[in-house]
Amino acid sequence: MRKVSVSAKTVELAVAEALHQARVSRDRAEVVVRVAPSRGFWGLGARDAVVDVMVVEDPIGDAERFLREMLVAMRLAIRVGKKIDKDEVTFELTGDRVGILIGKHGQTLDAIQYLVNVIGNKYADKHVRFIVDAEGYRERRRQALVFTAQKMAERALVLGKEVRLQPMAAPERKVVHMALQDRPDVRTESRGTDPDRAIVIVPVAPRKASRVSAVIRNS
């Protein structure tokens, strides 16, 4: 929990300054008066008030407010659903124009998710993982990546050589790695640097060349 200590002539002034320094509203803070102010006697023994302001952390609230304010700024009438599972929070976006928030291969959605995580965890004591989804896009994309990974693994085995996939963001590369990690006949490697970093599927036990034409014909 963040704490800001401030001294001022009065408790009210000290609290106001502490809230300003902490950049939070009064409802997000716990105030403790450590030293009460005193005017003394004829100026002797006078002392300022000293207060501690502890910021009440609300990572989920901060993340949701940021997301909603961003959508309003974009002039999009998008509904925001919320599902909490321990330290993971999923925001599900739905609406007529939600497609523009996805972008090519989910790049726009990933950028929004990154910002939501930064804002939500800025002052959090314990890290919360935020996922921003749009009408089930992430699960559809995951299934498509798994299908592509298995298909390209078969191609690599039949051709008896490495197969390089298109460049992907780190979360999507992780899906491909996991989709093939239990297969003993291929291994995966990430090569290159972002944004051109891509997965290469390397055959461990190449298939017979007689299957090449069948795989190519069906691909």
Description:
α2 packs across α3 (107-120) and α4 packs across α5 (170-180). Residues 209-219 have low confidence and may be disordered. The protein has 219 residues and is of the alpha+beta class. The longest helix has 23 residues, at 137-159. The protein has three domains: 3-55, Defensin A-like (2-Layer Sandwich); 59-135, K homology (KH) domain (GMP Synthetase, Chain A, domain 3); 140-218, Ribosomal Protein S8, Chain: A, domain 1 (2-Layer Sandwich). The protein has helices at 11-22, 59-73, 107-120, 137-159, 170-180, 212-218; strands at residues 3-8, 29-35, 49-55, 79-85, 88-94, 129-134, 163-164, 186-191, 198-203. The chain has a three-stranded antiparallel beta sheet, covered by helices on one side. A three-stranded mixed beta sheet has the order 4-5-6. It is built from six helices and nine strands; from the N terminus they run βαββαββαβαβαββα. The radius of gyration is 27 Å and the shape is elongated.
Short description:
With about 220 residues, the chain is of the alpha+beta class. It is built from 6 helices and 9 strands; from the N terminus they run E-H-E-E-H-E-E-H-E-H-E-H-E-E-H.
